[in-house]
Amino acid sequence: MKRLRVLHIDSGTSWRxxxxxxxxxxxxxxxxxxxxxxxxxxxxxxxxxxxxxxLAVATVRMRGDWDVAAARRIRSRMRAWSADVxxxxxxxAHAVALIALLGSRAKPLVVTRRVPFAPKSVRMKYGExxxxxxxxxxxVRDAMVASGISGRRVEVVHSGVELxxxxxxxxxxxxxxxxxxxxxxxxxxxxxxxxxxxxxxxxIARLLRPEVAxxxxxxxxxxxxxxxxxxGPVAAHSAGFVTDxxxxxxxxxxxxxxxxxxxxxxxxxDAMALGVPPVAFAVGGLPEVIENDVSGLLVPAGDxxxxxxxxxxxxxxxxxxxxxxxxxxxxxxxxxxxxxTERTESVYYRVLAG
Length: 354
Prior knowledge:
Distance between the termini: 16 Å
Radius of gyration: 21 Å
Strand order of the largest sheet: 3-2-1-4-5-6-7
CATH architecture of the largest domain: 3-Layer(aba) Sandwich
CATH superfamily of the largest domain: Glycogen Phosphorylase B
Oligomer: single chain
Strand content: 15-25%
Number of helices: 15
Order of helices and strands: EHEHEHEHEHEHEHEHHEEHEHEHEHHH
Number of domains: 2
């Protein structure tokens, strides 16, 4: 197969799941013999991490969806570097790439979409100039098709995580925080935002049976650090942004994922890969990841009572945690970063073949 030069554009200024996927993809493509070039805002966490990994990087600040000045700078880089494929990884990068490619019909543009909502500006941004859309789940693809985008133009490539071999030393939350050994450590991982359901945690905690709540401890890994706190009747600790998230997740007994909308849920896959069983609402792409009562527990979207009941089952039953943890570990093997890279590579070759 031809060695490809792939120009990746991402406008994100923070480190979230999308930026992590861009980095994993660029590293995977390099490992497979291709030449990735990443364009992102100056000093963005993605740019910093890509540089540290030895990837080729250029910086362009993208101030809006239709930033003509940014598009001109990207167009210059594109021509000087002779990219075979341009891959935009978020909505702003998508719009800027369309401007940068004006008059260059032959160069393929691939756009990744990560959210399970109907896209805006369908006629303007989702026209034929985009060679192919990559949806990170069937739920995302369905939302695109429902908005009028032809399903023939959308490929599903599930996001991937690093499936680390060998033993991961779990973070000892009980020892660090002085929690009793008999407590069950639950965790919420990722952005601490309303759409991720953080505002429902207190309601969930209050619905736990008293004998369950007293054994429960909750770790918030993400957002800003607040230290010790109470969430309803449950003692909790806000750890803030955690740089090395894998040991932090490995130290959990149960993952709580009360997200109201989810493209796929890589933090859930991370937990599953480490044998930590999740409880989550059946929204977006999560039913594509979690097999209910096999690799985790799924509850109907928005049903706080059933979420609390499912969480209580896991907290109160060590054998259930072990069984679902084993199922979760096996299921996560289908969502490796290497598979995500190979499937994306196949999309590139298909659009280059016309």
